[in-house]
Description:
The protein has seven helices and twelve strands.
Amino acid sequence: MRDVIPPSLFEIIRDRYLAGVSDAEDKFEMSAADEDSLTGALGQAISTGKPRFHQAGKEIYAWKISYYKLRGRGPEAPEKYTGADGLFQIEVKQNELIVLRKGLPFQAKKNWSRKDKKLVSQCKDMQKISKSGIVIDYTKIGYTACDVQDVIDADGYKTKVKKDGKLAQLGQTLGEEFLGCSIGQQGLYYDTESKKILGTDFPEISTTHIVSAIIVHSEQIE
């Protein structure tokens, strides 16, 4: 990412992720009823809605952070075969041309503490649709994340993932690793017209029941 956008824009987007996750953590009790509520609050806190604009020298960049929640209940729920609760997505354009578009599938848990065989299965399913994904753990003392492969290697034990030093703060995971392109998949995105996750080497996955949970802001130059 650092090689396609200016450092000033990198910092703006990173700070957006860090501030958004921090805000969601501060309001944990307001959405603590279930994982879906916590995920919705997090997605709204980090998302920008309409593109925002940043000028660096003579160039103007349009950037957008978004998240899409996959339906997990009912017949043919996308979560059941993708393993993911949703998709984090970022897009940056320069002169109307996309210079960066990437996605990161995620599965979310609240107070994950014991061995979770179902989570291991979900992580394996996520690897079928993307080369990279994360598991988020919501707790009242903070939000952490780890790579799906680390969950598989630990056989679903959070204690082992933590002992192995694989847990990281979610803000850092999104603001540094995802933004910095060490995780996430280039070209992976949700297409609102076809209702599919596209831009992957894996078979296209229909996500008809994905719903957007983006806060809509007015366009502005930062």
